[in-house]
Design goal:
This protein is an alpha+beta fold. The chain has 13 helices and 18 strands. The two termini are 29 Å apart. Bound molecules: zinc ion.
């Protein structure tokens, strides 16, 4: 039996027991947005450092910066200077569960059939744990890894990676590598692996409408003076088409993307289940595209909040002003300025009654990302996935925005960035009952075993 086959078998056998560790990590409830959980993140970071050391990695350490949740780093450089160094990135913080109704304890791993429920199971603990298991199998079976490996786990991804650039500046050696495997992404189905090559960006704007210096009696002044609330509703309605989709700044979608997007089995039933739609509610019509193409490649709008009078504050008055915050998803290949300009122009033109309309960009925009995943590292990834999943991964987009990816893309543009993960359409990341499919996890463990060997061969340096 070849080394890689022996290691793959050992890793496969370790999948079940690794779930005990997953349950332990989950139980820390490392919610990065909750100031009260700061100690839990620090505790988990120390546990991960110790576990990385135990599985045979060197220089396992916690990286600290003031006013930041820590990162965890470790490495194994025993493959020598002619072997490539692979960076594995993941994040150990999780989204909050406040206001969500879970069927199980969100901070305990609960198995039902093929799915493992718990906050962080798939986003992103299963993602990096699949590497721990693969590395451990290589080290226990052969005493070495086929390539040099660095592991970098972040504790602030779910709050937008506000300090990741500072960690890169303070600890460049923790990131220095020849290829990066960034594990926080999804697969089109539990049978079809995906490598992510495009992301939408994110832009938030506030639109405020004002009419008067004070609220006025709606009986005396209604039908005579304009109402900012109904005007705002009318302005917002201009942004969308009859289906409710953003009608502005749409992109031409090339045929290759459209064809790939149609390989993603997002049938109406899958969408209903994945988006938890009520009976009788239909997904939006395709209009010549596909659901995936709409999500990956077109800009979109969501209302985040409004200042319409809240329940309990009713009074018979025309309010003097109101506002709404909108989230806009920036299409790949589109800049935040292009999208902002289109939206601001539409909201500001021909405002009835001369009301004051101001459109402000809110801080924290994330760029979109469009990547060409070609070359030896991606051929290596294709072969690794084929060995584990029985088929090559398709190149997919993600409709969401992952700020760390744009940052890695900016800082390490010359390196191959392989974006994979253990999320699938039923995962429900960032919502109640988040889960990971055990088969997806097991296949990803096996793919990682092959990935190190394939990358070592594909990226070997002439010595
Ligand atoms: Zn994530």
């Amino acid at each position: 039996m070849s080394d890689v086959a022996k290691v793959a078998l050992s890793a496969e056998n370790a999948v079940e027991s690794s779930l005990v560790r997953l349950g332990r990590y989950l139980s820390f409830a490392p919610i990065s947005s909750d100031p009260a959980a700061k100690g839990k993140l620090a505790e988990l970071a120390a546990v991960l450092r110790d576990d990385l050391a135990k599985l045979g990695l060197q220089r396992a350490r916690v990286l600290d910066l003031p006013d930041a949740h820590p990162c965890v780093a470790a490495e194994w450089m025993g493959a020598g200077p002619n072997a490539p160094t692979i960076l594995v990135y993941g994040h150990f913080d999780v989204q909050p569960v406040k206001g969500e109704t879970w069927d199980t304890d969100p901070h305990a791993l609960v198995r039902k059939g093929d799915r493992l429920y718990g906050r962080g199971s798939a986003d992103d603990m299963g993602g990096w744990l699949s590497h721990f298991v693969a590395m451990e199998a290589w080290l226990s079976q052969t005493g070495k890894l086929p390539c040099n490996v660095k592991v970098l786990l972040e504790g602030e991804e779910e709050i937008g990676s506000p300090n990741l650039a500072k960690f890169m500046d303070a600890h460049p050696d923790a990131f220095e590598s020849d290829a990066m495997v960034l594990t926080d992404c999804e697969n089109p189905s539990v049978d079809i692996p995906g490598l992510t090559v495009s992301l939408r960006g994110l832009l938030e704007v506030e639109v405020a409408v004002a009419s008067a210096k004070s609220d006025v009696h709606s009986g005396l002044w209604g039908n005579i003076v304009p109402d900012p609330a109904t005007t705002l509703i009318a302005l917002l309605a201009r942004l969308v088409d009859a289906d409710g989709r953003l009608a502005l700044a749409r992109r031409e979608i090339d045929q290759a993307w459209l064809a790939t997007s149609r390989d993603v089995p997002l049938t109406p039933d899958v969408i209903r289940a994945g988006a938890r739609l009520l009976d009788g509610v239909s997904p939006l019509p395709d209009r010549g595209l596909s659901p995936a193409a709409w999500a990956w490649r077109q800009p979109a709008v969501t209302v985040l909040s409004t200042t319409f009078p809240a329940p309990g504050s009713e009074k018979n008055a025309i309010r003097r002003s109101c506002s709404a915050k909108l989230s806009l998803r920036i299409a790949p290949g589109q800049t935040s300025k292009q999208l902002y300009d289109a939206v601001a122009a539409e909201l500001s033109r021909d405002v009835p009654g001369g009301l004051t309309v101001s459109v402000t960009e809110l801080p924290g925009a994330a760029s979109s990302w469009d990547y060409v995943a070609k070359g030896p590292a991606f051929d290596a990834a294709d072969r690794a996935y084929e060995a584990a999943w029985g088929r090559r991964p398709i190149r997919i987009g993600i409709g969401g925005s992952i700020p760390f990816v744009a940052l890695f893309g900016e800082r390490f543009s010359r390196l191959p960035l392989v974006l994979n993960g253990v999320i699938d359409p039923e995962t429900g990341a960032h919502g109640p009952n988040e889960s990971m499919h055990v088969g997806v996890y097991a296949k990803t463990v096996k793919a990682n075993v092959h990935l190190y060997a394939e990358l070592a061969r594909a990226l070997v340096k002439s010595g």
